From TrEMBL:
This is AB hydrolase-1 domain-containing protein. Keywords: Hydrolase. Coiled coil: none annotated. It comes from Cephalotrichum gorgonifer. GO terms for biological process: proteolysis.
Amino acid sequence: MSFTSANVRLSDGAMIHARVLGMEDKHKPLLIALHGAPGLSSHTEPEVSYAFLGDRFRVLVYDSRGSGGSDLKGPYTDERWIADVDEMRAWAGAETFVLAGGSYGGFISLGYALAFPNRLSALILRDVWACGPRAVLRALSFILTSPRIKPDPSRQVRLWSGNVRDKEDGEKALAEILTIYSPPEKDEQEIAGADGFEGASQEMHWETHNSAFSFSSPRFDVRDRLGEIETPTLVVVGRHDPITPVEEAVEIAGSIANSELVIFEGSGHNPPADEPEAFQEAVVKFFVKLGM
C-alpha cells in the first residue's frame, strides 16, 4: 500500500496538500495524523510514523495551512488549524475518526478534542504539553543550560517567542538546537539539517512559525479543561525529550480519565523515529484494547 497525493480546497479558499493511504477503502475507519512545528514541519513525519496502520485505517496526513506545500493563507492561529482538521474530516467522508498529533500537532489535537468531542473515537498525543507559556519557558531554560549545545541566547529567545527576524535568523536558531531533539546517545551521529527535525519541509515558512509562537502559544492553556475529555487517549513521550518533557505527559494523562501513558526510555522528542518498533507495538495494543 502507498500514499497518494490530493489537493483539498477548504471553505475559505485555502488549498491543503494532503497524502492519503487507503482512501478508497471506505469501510475502514479514518485516522488523521497532524505534524508539529507550524511552518517548519510537514506531513512527512506523520506519514512515516503512521503508515504501519494502513491495514486498519485510512490514514490521512497533510501540510497544515502555512506549512509545506499547502497555501500560505492565514490566519495562522490554533482556532483556524482546529477548524481545518474538521474540514479535512468532512472531506474524507467520516463522521468520527481517530486523531493523532505530535508536538504542536498535539496542541491542535487537544483543542480539537475540546471543540468537537463527539467527532473522536480515539486520541493519540505524542510529546505534547497543556500550557504553552510555562512549557516554552521550561524548554528555553533547558536549551540555554544544556551542556550538549551552545546556542545564542538572544536568537533562541526570538525563536521561542515567535520573533524570528528572517530566514537566516530562523535557520541558524533551529540548527543550534537540533541535537537535543534526539536522545543523548545520538549526539555523535550526524544530523543533516532540517532532516533531523520532525520531517521538516524543504522550505520553512517563518511567518507561520512566528504567528504560532507569538500569538497562539502564549494563550494556549487547557490544563483546567483536560478533565472534560472523555475520548480514549494514548499519551506517549520520550524519556529524554527536553521540549515536551515527561512531566508534561504525566500531567495530561493524569487529568484525562480514560487515558494511558507510555514512556519510551530510549527516545527524545520523536519516539516513532527513535524507537519505531516499540512505538508501533504500543499503538496497536491501544487499538486492540479499544476493539479497533
